[in-house]
C-alpha cells in the first residue's frame, strides 16, 4: 500500500473514476455535484491517489481555504476499505498541508465516518448538516 501525489492527467482520471464509483454510483451523489472547478492540476488543489497491490483504489484532495487545509473527496473503493487506506490518504493529505506550513486542517465528514476521523485526531466542530443528501459534520485537527 502506498500513496502518491497526482501530477498527470492519467492519474487524475483514475481518481475521477474512483470518486464516480464511490460517490455517484454507490452513494447517489449527482454527477454534476461531484466534480467542480477544483478538479484540475493547476495548483488550486493537491490530489492524492492510494494504491493496493499496484492498483489505484482510493483518492482524496486538499485545498487551502482561508489559511486552513480543507480535505475533500476522500474515498476508497468498497472491496479495499478494510486495509487502512483511508488512514493512509488522510496522512498523505496532512503531509501536504504541513508542507504548505498550514497549522490546521478541516473536512466535511460523513456522519457514518465520524468515528474513523476521531481515531485520527479530528474533533467534531459543527452540528450535523446535509450535503448532497448525506449527513455530514465539520471536523478539524491542529497539525
From TrEMBL:
<dbReference type="GO" id="GO:0004343">
    <property type="term" value="F:glucosamine 6-phosphate N-acetyltransferase activity"/>
</dbReference>
<protein>
    <recommendedName>
        <fullName>N-acetyltransferase domain-containing protein</fullName>
    </recommendedName>
</protein>
<dbReference type="InterPro" id="IPR039143">
    <property type="entry name" value="GNPNAT1-like"/>
</dbReference>
<dbReference type="InterPro" id="IPR000182">
    <property type="entry name" value="GNAT_dom"/>
</dbReference>
<dbReference type="InterPro" id="IPR016181">
    <property type="entry name" value="Acyl_CoA_acyltransferase"/>
</dbReference>
<feature type="domain" description="N-acetyltransferase">
    <location>
        <begin position="1"/>
        <end position="143"/>
    </location>
</feature>
<dbReference type="Pfam" id="PF13673">
    <property type="entry name" value="Acetyltransf_10"/>
</dbReference>
Amino acid at each position: 500500500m502506498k500513496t502518491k501525489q497526482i501530477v498527470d492527467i492519467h492519474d487524475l482520471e483514475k481518481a475521477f473514476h474512483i470518486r464516480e464509483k464511490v460517490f455517484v454510483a454507490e452513494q447517489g451523489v449527482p454527477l454534476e455535484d461531484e466534480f467542480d472547478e477544483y478538479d484540475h492540476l493547476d495548483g488550486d488543489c493537491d490530489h492524492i491517489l492510494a494504491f493496493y497491490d499496484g492498483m489505484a483504489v482510493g483518492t482524496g484532495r486538499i485545498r487551502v481555504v482561508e489559511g486552513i487545509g480543507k480535505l475533500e473527496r476522500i474515498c476508497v473503493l468498497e472491496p479495499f476499505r478494510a486495509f487502512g487506506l483511508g488512514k493512509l490518504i488522510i496522512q498523505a493529505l496532512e503531509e501536504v498541508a504541513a508542507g504548505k506550513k498550514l497549522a490546521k486542517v478541516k473536512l466535511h465528514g460523513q456522519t457514518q465516518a465520524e468515528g474513523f476521523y476521531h481515531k485520527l485526531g479530528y474533533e467534531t466542530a459543527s452540528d450535523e448538516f446535509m450535503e448532497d443528501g448525506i449527513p455530514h459534520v465539520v471536523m478539524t485537527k491542529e497539525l
